[in-house]
UniProtKB/TrEMBL annotation:
Region (Disordered): 137-160
Sequence ranges assigned to domain Amidase in this UniProt record: 31-441
Regions crossing the membrane: none
Name of the molecule in the record: Amidase
InterPro entries, A to Z: Amidase, Amidase_CS, Amidase_dom, AS_sf
Recorded family membership: Belongs to the amidase family.
């Protein structure tokens, strides 16, 4: 059995890789070792990885033995990266910080599930310190770059995972989304990105990270591979099979409103390319037979309540490190603000008014289409020379279309929608009521089939 050249394996999807490993057409050891070579070659340019596993060949050999024994592994031999916020027993998951030094006692449940499904974990990807910002930069990890334009950030906090998948280093990578950290990097890196309803994907050993606003998940280059990954994470939810279901025409609303714009404008300017991405996606859904209309959306105090919960959570995360004195200025400032806002947490945990405002706005609507981000990814190193408060304010402006849904618990799917005038990806966000991931993925699959994005690859890292 001859291993295929690395350039053929680079863009092979997860489902096809697993199918060919199960059939005996691909050697999982060769597949894993090719992924490690790609990671090493791209690391000086992209800096997507915190560390590379030293037992990749052993993992892949174990997968080969399981396949030979007759196990039907959905991710057989698929190279996969994990975000460096996910625990692996015996290893330090740094979350991009010098302040975290203690190895984990147990492995995160999502990591256990992908390994049980046959994935080969090739390493851990970069994240900003304590996952607090929508770019992936830290004193410990340096600057992670976007494979579409290495002068720009891939986003954050799952930026390393998004960059790794977009650059073809691995077909799948795990991440987490507490305020847009999967959907945002997916948008800036030209990938689909699913934020599942909080509580559906297990967060163990973490209990209610960020007061319950975090949902773990990950990245793939196609909607079908995204569904495959989430079926594994959810323990067999049938999402991939649902891609073939006929849901009938969906009632779709398009809006450019965002929580950060009211009551005080704070969202930052919306670039025309990103507004056009939302409108274009609405037009494409209409052409596919869905009912589409424009609606205004009201969010109440969702943005303010998210901010309170985010900053209080930052304080908790800083205090939980081994050396709080070593955290960087941005995290330290967020923790101090969280201490000041802690008395407001009970108010921020009450989301009834915001739920009613959104549900009233979207009465009779199945799916809301908005921009995913308001702007192109900023240059790497943008925070340099800025005060921590200015950095946090800029970060908040970038996720105004994302964070209210973490607060409210509504799932969302980023879908690529072309490129801007500089050739960088743009995307729209599909959002639905809790538990409607199958509908979101079905619509995403329809959009992908009608307007394929999988044949466009970035040059960086190749």
């Amino acid at each position: 059995m001859e291993p295929e050249p690395d350039d053929q394996l680079r863009w092979l999807g997860a489902a096809e890789t697993a199918r060919r490993v199960r059939s005996g057409d691909l050697d999982p050891v060769a597949v894993a070792e090719a992924a490690v070579r790609r990671v090493g070659a791209a690391q000086p340019r992209l800096n997507a990885f915190q560390r590379v596993a030293d037992d990749v060949a052993e993992q892949a050999s174990a997968v080969a033995a399981r396949v030979a024994a007759g196990e039907d592994l959905p991710l057989a031999g698929v190279p996969l990266a994990i975000k460096d916020e996910l625990a692996v027993a015996g290893e330090v998951h740094t979350k991009g910080s010098w302040a975290r030094r203690t190895p984990a006692d147990v492995t995160a449940e999502v990591v256990r599930r992908v390994r049980a499904a046959g994935a080969v974990v090739v390493g851990a990807t970069r994240t900003p310190e304590l996952c607090l910002t929508p770019y992936t930069e830290s004193e410990r990890g340096g600057l992670t770059r976007n494979p579409w334009d290495p002068t720009r950030t891939p986003g954050g906090s799952s930026g390393g995972s998004a960059a790794a998948v977009a650059a073809g280093l691995v077909p799948l990578a795990l991440g987490g989304d507490g305020g847009g950290s999967i959907r945002g990097p997916a948008a800036w890196c030209g990938l689909p990105g699913l934020f599942a309803t909080p509580g559906r994907v297990p967060t163990a050993p973490d209990a209610l990270p960020w007061t319950g606003m975090v949902s773990f998940g990950g990245f793939a280059r196609s909607v079908a591979d995204t569904a495959l990954l989430y079926d594994v994470l959810l323990g067999g939810s049938g999402l991939r099979a649902a891609l073939e279901d006929d849901f009938g025409p969906a009632r779709v609303a398009v809006s450019l409103d965002r929580a950060g714009d009211r009551p005080v404008p704070q969202g930052g300017p919306l670039e025309p390319a990103w507004a056009d991405a939302a409108r274009r996606t609405g037009d494409r859904l209409a052409a596919l037979g869905h009912t589409v209309r424009r609606v205004p959306v009201r969010f109440g105090a969702a943005s303010t309540k998210f901010t309170v919960r985010y900053l209080v959570s930052a304080r908790r995360d800083v205090r939980a490190t081994d050396r709080p004195d070593l955290v960087e200025p941005v995290a330290r400032t967020a923790a101090r603000l969280g201490a000041l806002l802690r008395p407001a947490l009970p108010w921020a945990l009450r989301t009834g008014p915001e739920r009613r405002a959104v549900e009233t706005s979207l009465d009779g609507v199945d799916v809301l289409v908005t921009p995913t981000m308001p702007c192109a990814p900023p240059p790497v190193g943008e925070r340099d020379g800025r005060s921590p408060v200015a950095t946090l304010l800029a970060a908040g402006q970038r996720v105004g279309y994302l964070n209210p849904w973490n607060l409210l618990g509504w799932p969302g799917l980023t879908v690529p929608a072309g490129v801007d005038g500089d050739g960088r990806p743009v995307a729209a966000l599909l959002t639905a009521r809790p538990g409607r991931e199958a509908l979101l993925l079905r619509l995403g699959a329809q959009l992908e089939a009608a307007h394929p994005w999988g044949d466009r690859h970035p040059a960086a890292g190749s």
